[in-house]
Design brief:
Length: 182
């Protein structure tokens, strides 16, 4: 448990009055967490969008993972607001921002984008993201990761009426899952 002081909502509002740049964007991100936790997804989304605008304005002074975190927040708000396409678009941007980050984070972001495109019923885009995740090679990748990727690709191919190819991916997923289970 962290002992650092976490500002409450009133402190964050006071901070926003005088803060600029990264400090203001960080306060907006904190406010978005508070709004999300109380179920006000529209307000949380507005805070995320405001933070995003500041981060984008600051450009190269902001690490891409910070901006990806904001897009993740927007993705979850859009999901809660049942805006599947917007959610998938946010997940896609978050993944693109992490392309040069550590491979594990990037592969997770690719899978997340693929899942959100699947929920939005855009199976071709979902397939593209799951395929990228499958093709991504990194030291920490496990058979279980590859099994998930193969299964997700199979699901997309099944929805695209490409049943023969889907079966191949499902069988690969099953074989990899068996290896991972041992």
């Amino acid at each position: 448990m962290s002992t650092e002081h976490r500002p409450d909502e009133s402190e964050l509002w006071e901070k926003i009055k005088s803060a600029t740049g990264l400090e203001k964007a960080d306060a907006l991100v904190d406010l978005s967490h508070i709004a999300y936790d109380r179920g006000d997804f529209q307000e949380a989304l507005a805070f995320c969008e405001s933070a995003r605008d500041i981060f984008v304005e600051l450009g190269e002074n902001v690490h891409s993972s910070r901006l990806a975190h904001v897009y993740d927040g927007m993705m979850w708000c859009h999901t809660k607001l049942d805006r599947k396409v917007e959610s998938a678009q946010d997940a896609e941007v978050a993944a693109e921002l992490l392309v040069d980050d550590e491979p594990v984070k990037y592969s997770e972001a690719l899978r997340t984008a693929g899942c959100h495109w699947y929920s939005a019923k855009n199976y071709e885009k979902s397939y593209e993201f799951h395929k990228k995740a499958l093709e991504l090679a990194y030291v920490e990748k496990t058979e279980y990761d590859s099994a998930i990727d193969n299964h997700n690709i199979g699901m997309c191919l099944q929805k695209m009426d490409m049943h023969g190819e889907a079966i191949e991916y499902f069988l690969k997923a099953r074989a990899l899952a068996k290896v991972a289970k041992k």
